Amino acid sequence: MLTTCTPPPVLNAPGPGMLAALGAWTWLGLDPADAPLAHRLLAHPPGRTARDTPAAIEVRMQRIAASLGGLAAPQEHVPDVGARLLMVSPTTVLRFEGMRYGVRLPVRPGWARHLRRHDHAVITVGLSPLPRSADLTDVDTYLHDTLATGRLLFGLTHPV
To answer: What is the mean pLDDT of the chain?
Structure first.
């Protein structure tokens, strides 16, 4: 007899609509030892309704971080959250703990090559909103400001 075991769903896990609304950015940066490192940032867009308060957005992004296996604050040790990236060229699928679905995110070919070669990336979740239309300068400013205020969460992930 064949038995299929599915993991229990993550309590308060984000739904497909929330995942589809996320903004996502990738870049190649450096780790603390100045070695090249692939980065992926996830952020919630600014609120469009009265329910989308900064506090509500932070709660949603905390749920995203929890469903990625628990990410760490900037002053903490960056945890390894395991294999979360499924490479499906020219995109990646970011997988969430206990959920049957993930979110498909575009990546540049150089980012994907680096990930295949080095087998890990840092995933960063921003607790403050960032417009999906943010350009490189906006993202740099966002990272600087949210890092200074401890509003970023980090984890190390690998391709499946």
So the answer is: 87
Distance CA 28, CA 147 (A): 18
Give the per-residue pLDDT at 90: 78
Helix, coil or strand: residue 6: coil
**Nearest 5 degrees, angle CA 136-CA 59-CA 93?**
55
Q: Rounded to whole angstroms, how far apart are CA atoms 72 and 81?
A: 10
C-alpha to C-alpha distances, 39 to 1, 5, 19, 26, 121, nearest whole angstrom: 43, 32, 18, 5, 6
Cα separation, 13 vs 67, in Å, equals 6
> Looking only at Cα atoms, what is the longest distance across the chain?
57
Estimate to the nearest angstrom the gap between the alpha carbon of 154 and the chain centroid. Answer: 8
